């Protein structure tokens, strides 16, 4: 296909046009050719070994690695460009940041998505080249960012489906790339969002999703209901949870409460959330209207840390601050300043001066936008520091109460769910001095720093106002034996729940692809039982466990997804999120009577009901 430089610049909204295509002899072109060659060689397994000339192993395979470097030129219709930096004639300063934060390149243009669609790195383009090299004619088989977006944008408009259970959804899993260069199954590789302060703008798909849902939903929250929670659900977001969201046309991240989950038309209840209604946090009376946003511009709360509060707000909880008074006093101060300025202007227009003793009033300490922003941060800190239970069961004793679920800080957690917990040696006590139940393995000795296990919750209870969790504790493990022959893997049945099954399905699909491609002995992941009915106190629970591939795609962890596409998956996503009680500014506040009491006046709407969720309040 291809685009001329004029077509690219005409379609671009940038104030700095791209230059002419770089010649093959340019440093950037050479660098891309080398990096593309390495990426293609790595993904196809080309030249991993050479014919045995210097020795071989017991199987007759060569032990001599191929150190040949391969160069891959751009396919026909694709061209490499930079935005020439001011004062530079050849674009050699292309890696710098131009005016307004624009990146100067180099970029590869030519994708059918449009003249301004560009690959920003050799790693991005390599995924597309793998598809071009394959026999596939379906763009859905390409895992590059631009093809994924092109296919997604071609989907029909979305409409609301109220009763949504946020459970199983197919997760893209890489498949083997044999010597014939068959294309991998789509694996989204978006740009990583590294901090809440700024991020790439939402894709047009997110805007279309939000607009479609906004037209088909009502603004009256009291008329909406959510489906009952399902233990072990794999979806990333749930009703009444605190999340980060990216407002339309803005790069900053903001905080809000999920009011309702929405799905695409025709999708089963097991499909992933497509969008959500969000109530922004803020000061009472200053909250902005609720938003309907695509799930790709939402993030779990523990993805980021809340920035420190400004002077004047630090050390205060949301409930402790008198927000109406703060708003009123600053509004009055702003009005006084405006009135004085008008009087001064009128006097000058008439050639007069203000009466003796007239003094300019003090400026307001904060503007309304600042007050609302600080209120959202204070509210988020308060919500994260509290918990409230629901679904009461018969009491075990006068002091022990059992529940079906809990809002633990930002997250909704129910029996059957998976949570990240502190790993523990055999016989060690939990935060309340209790033993950890029976163990299925010997964990003696020191555990590596940061070791995290996964608990399937069997019981949620409060004991003298202390929150406790009881469940089977697992750790992801990899066996090198043939599938099904490892005694540890088959000693116990895998934990029940769609989330546990999906995590193994993804990991074993990746391992199968890698082992088949490399003709290695079959390996597989399994859930290794560490404790049966282990106990964990509230401060030993980090937060919900999310399916690694779903979380990586949502957080735009390009490195993790690229490694998965190459057949490698570790525990990066288990450690990708913060621990609830170790986030900045954490001040424990304990149990609240209900989720509404926890959120307080931080949102301007009533929480819509969740079917089956009955709180003690």
From TrEMBL:
Chain intervals for the UniProt region annotation (Disordered): 1-23, 81-106, 425-449
GO BP: any one term: silent mating-type cassette heterochromatin formation
Stored Pfam families: Clr2 (PF10383), Clr2_transil (PF16761)
GO cellular component: mating-type region heterochromatin; rDNA heterochromatin; SHREC complex
Biased composition (Polar residues): 1-17
InterPro entries membership: Clr2, Clr2_N, Tscrpt-silencing_Clr2_C
Domain (Cryptic loci regulator 2 C-terminal) ranges: 403-547
Top-rank taxon: Eukaryota
Limits of the Cryptic loci regulator 2 N-terminal domain: 71-147
Low complexity bias locations: 437-446
Protein known as: Cryptic loci regulator 2 N-terminal domain-containing protein
Organism: Grosmannia clavigera (strain kw1407 / UAMH 11150)
């Amino acid at each position: 296909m291809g685009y001329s430089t004029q077509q690219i610049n005409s379609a671009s909204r940038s104030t700095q046009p791209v230059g002419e295509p770089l010649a093959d002899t340019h440093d950037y072109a050479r660098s891309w050719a080398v990096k593309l060659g390495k990426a293609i060689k790595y993904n196809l397994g080309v030249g991993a070994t050479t014919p045995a000339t210097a020795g071989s192993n017991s199987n007759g395979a060569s032990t001599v690695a191929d150190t040949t470097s391969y160069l891959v030129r751009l396919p026909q219709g694709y061209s490499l460009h930079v935005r020439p930096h001011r004062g530079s004639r050849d674009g050699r300063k292309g890696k710098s940041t131009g005016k307004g934060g624009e990146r100067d390149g180099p970029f590869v243009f030519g994708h059918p998505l449009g003249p301004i669609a560009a690959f920003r790195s050799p790693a991005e383009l390599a995924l597309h080249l793998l598809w071009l090299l394959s026999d596939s004619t379906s763009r859905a088989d390409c895992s590059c960012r631009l093809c994924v977006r092109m296919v997604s944008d071609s989907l029909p408009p979305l409409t609301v489906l109220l009763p949504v259970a946020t459970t199983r959804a197919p997760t893209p899993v890489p498949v083997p790339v044999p010597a014939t260069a068959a294309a991998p199954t789509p694996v989204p590789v978006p740009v990583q969002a590294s901090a809440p302060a700024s991020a790439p703008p939402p894709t047009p798909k997110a805007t279309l999703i939000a607009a479609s849902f906004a037209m088909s939903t009502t603004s009256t929250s009291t008329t909406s209901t959510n489906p009952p929670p399902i233990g072990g659900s794999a979806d990333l977001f749930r009703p009444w949870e605190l999340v980060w969201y990216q407002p339309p046309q803005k790069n900053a991240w903001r905080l809000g409460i999920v009011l309702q989950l929405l799905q695409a038309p025709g999708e089963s209840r097991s499909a992933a959330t497509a969008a959500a209604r969000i109530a922004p946090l803020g000061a009472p009376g200053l909250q902005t209207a609720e938003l309907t946003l695509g799930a790709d511009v939402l993030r779990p709360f523990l993805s980021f840390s809340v920035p420190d509060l400004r002077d004047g707000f630090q050390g205060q909880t949301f409930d402790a601050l008198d927000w109406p008074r703060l708003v009123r006093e600053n509004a009055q101060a702003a009005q006084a300043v405006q009135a004085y300025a008008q009087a001064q202007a009128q006097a000058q227009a008439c050639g007069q001066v203000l009466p003796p003793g007239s003094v300019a009033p003090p400026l307001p300490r904060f503007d309304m936008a600042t007050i609302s922003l600080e209120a959202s941060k204070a509210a988020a800190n308060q919500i994260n520091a509290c918990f409230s239970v629901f679904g009461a069961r018969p009491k075990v004793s006068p002091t022990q109460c059992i529940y079906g679920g809990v809002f633990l800080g930002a997250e909704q957690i129910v029996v059957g769910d998976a949570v990240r917990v502190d790993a523990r040696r055999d016989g060690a006590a939990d935060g309340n001095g209790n033993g950890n139940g029976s163990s299925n393995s010997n964990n003696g000795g020191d555990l590596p720093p940061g070791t995290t296990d996964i608990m399937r919750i069997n019981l949620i209870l409060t004991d003298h106002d202390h929150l406790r969790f009881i469940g089977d504790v697992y750790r992801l493990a990899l066996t090198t034996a043939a599938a099904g022959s490892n005694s540890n893997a088959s000693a116990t049945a895998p934990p029940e729940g769609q989330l546990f099954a999906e995590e193994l399905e993804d990991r074993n699909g990746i391992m199968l692809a890698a082992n088949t491609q490399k003709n290695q002995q079959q390996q597989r992941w399994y859930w290794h039982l560490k404790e049966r009915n282990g106990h964990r106190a509230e401060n030993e629970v980090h937060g919900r466990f999310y399916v690694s591939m779903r979380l990586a795609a949502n957080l735009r962890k390009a490195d993790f997804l690229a490694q998965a596409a190459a057949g490698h998956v570790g525990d990066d996503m288990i450690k990708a999120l913060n621990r609830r009680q170790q986030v900045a500014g954490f001040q424990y506040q304990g149990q609240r009577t209900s989720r509404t009491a926890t959120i307080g006046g931080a949102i301007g709407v009533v929480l819509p009901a969740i079917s089956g969720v009955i709180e003690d309040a």
